[in-house]
Amino acid sequence: MAEDKEMELISVLNEQERILDSMLSEQSRIHECVVKRSWEGLEQFVMNINELGGEFSKVDNFRDSIASVSDDIYFRPGVKDVFLRVKSKLSKSKIENDALARYVNATKAFISEVMDNCISQQRNDIYSSNGTMRKNYAQSIVINRSV
User: Fold this and answer.
1) Which helix (H) or strand (E) holds 133?
2) Helices marked H in the chain
3) What local confidence, expressed as pLDDT, does residue 107 receive?
4) CB 13 within 8 Å of CB 63
5) Residue 129, SS3?
6) Contacts of 128 by beta carbon, 8 Å cutoff, 6+ apart
7) Coil, strand or helix: which one is 52?
8) Residue 80 and residue 71: Cα distance in Å, rounded?
9) What residues does each domain of the chain span?
10) Is 56:100 a contact under the CB 8 Å cutoff?
11) Eight-state DSSP code of residue 77
């Protein structure tokens, strides 16, 4: 029984690794689009990442249910190598997501600051529901650029 669960877990971990490989590929494409400022394909790559994330979550829930039978199943020789590869790729994916989020937030703050300095109407004070003053940041902006 334990050996069957071990083989099943290895199969699930291999599936997770396949999904993570696809996610890392899409993240690489997103990174390339952002660096080159090529926004045409970006939305499709983001949608692909979202789909892969949902698929990964389903497989991860199944992995949790399999692994719950034994506390040491991840330390068994056949499982350990695959598990470490999955964890490594998952960490790499998280780092890519964090880097992109920091870039987007920094860019948004920069553009909001530029808009605050250039457009006087954006300087209105806004108050939150509890009465504290908030800064009015532009939620989005579209800039036409001639090449």
Assistant:
1) strand 133-134
2) 2-36, 42-67, 77-118
3) 82
4) yes
5) coil
6) 134
7) helix
8) 13
9) 2-104
10) no
11) H
Amino acid, res. 8: E
Reported as a single tens digit per residue, the pLDDT across 39-69 is 777 888 889 999 999 999 999 999 988 888 8
Residue showing tokens 């190598």: 81
Cut 0.85: pTM above it: no
Q: Can you give the pLDDT of all 147 residues of the chain as single tens digits?
A: 567 888 898 999 999 999 999 999 999 998 888 888 877 778 888 899 999 999 999 999 999 888 888 878 888 888 899 999 999 999 999 998 898 889 888 888 887 777 767 665 545 667 777 877 776 655 556 666 665
Q: Which amino acid is at 97?
A: N
Place of tokens 């964890």: 87
Q: Are 39 and 6 in contact (CB under 8 A)?
A: no
